[in-house]
């Protein structure tokens, strides 16, 4: 079974309230993360028709701070489908309602997995690609999956070959192994 990207697109607009600010008066990053997680869940559930869990999150860069009173819009769509996994891409923009100025705050890519009632993975519909943009996003997802695999392999090599002396010379750390 296959579904178009458009069938599961989700948009969410939220007005930023003072209760969501951190100590410096900007919107708390954790609050934005929870909105990202909600929309990723909604989009993946819509595509799969199943309950979905977050498996991993790729790149959440907070490019620009979000201010109180701004209208934040999150747009999510399916970029890639595996057997039971989906990559949901999300673009976050904040609009200053008075000036109409819109800024790009964040783009994130969530890997979501579809589950049945017992918590077992279930197959999801494939995605039907209908535009160059959608094809580009599918390609980028494949690249990102490959890069993540490489990163994992690379991380274990670093662990095996880098000694404590090398680490403490290069980084701001004191290594004091007592256990
Ligand atoms: P891109 O991934 O290079 O296209 O970077 P963007 O920052 O433009 O968008 C990030 C992700 O948000 C995309 O990969 C899409 O999955 C999603 N997205 C972007 N624009 C839209 C939109 O207009 N509607 C919906 N539903 N999702 C969007």
Automatic annotation (TrEMBL):
Domain HotDog ACOT-type: 6-118
Key words of the record: Hydrolase
Record bears the keyword Transferase: no
Gene Ontology molecular functions: long-chain fatty acyl-CoA hydrolase activity
CDD domains: BFIT_BACH
Protein's GO biological process: acyl-CoA metabolic process
Superkingdom of origin: Bacteria
GO cellular component: cytosol
Recorded family membership: Belongs to the acyl coenzyme A hydrolase family.
Entry-linked PANTHER family: ACYL COENZYME A THIOESTER HYDROLASE, PROTEIN VDLD
Name of the protein: Uncharacterized domain 1-containing protein
Source organism of the structure: Sinomicrobium oceani
């Amino acid at each position: 079974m296959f579904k178009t990207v458009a069938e599961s697109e989700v948009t969410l607009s939220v007005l930023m309230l003072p209760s969501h600010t951190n100590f410096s008066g900007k919107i708390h990053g954790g609050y934005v993360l929870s909105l990202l997680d909600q929309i990723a869940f909604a989009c993946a559930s819509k595509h799969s028709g199943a309950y979905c869990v977050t498996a991993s999150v790729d790149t959440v860069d907070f490019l620009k701070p979000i201010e109180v009173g701004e209208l934040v819009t999150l747009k999510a769509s399916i970029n890639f489908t595996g057997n039971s996994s989906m990559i949901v891409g999300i673009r976050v923009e904040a609009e200053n309602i008075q000036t109409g100025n819109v800024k790009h705050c964040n783009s994130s890519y969530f890997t979501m997995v579809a589950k049945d009632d017992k918590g077992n993975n279930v197959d999801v519909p494939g995605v039907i690609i209908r535009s160059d943009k959608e094809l580009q996003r599918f390609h980028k997802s494949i690249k990102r999956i490959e890069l993540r695999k490489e990163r994992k392999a690379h991380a274990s090599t670093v662990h095996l070959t880098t000694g404590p002396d090398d680490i403490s010379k290069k980084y701001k750390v004191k290594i004091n192994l007592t256990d």
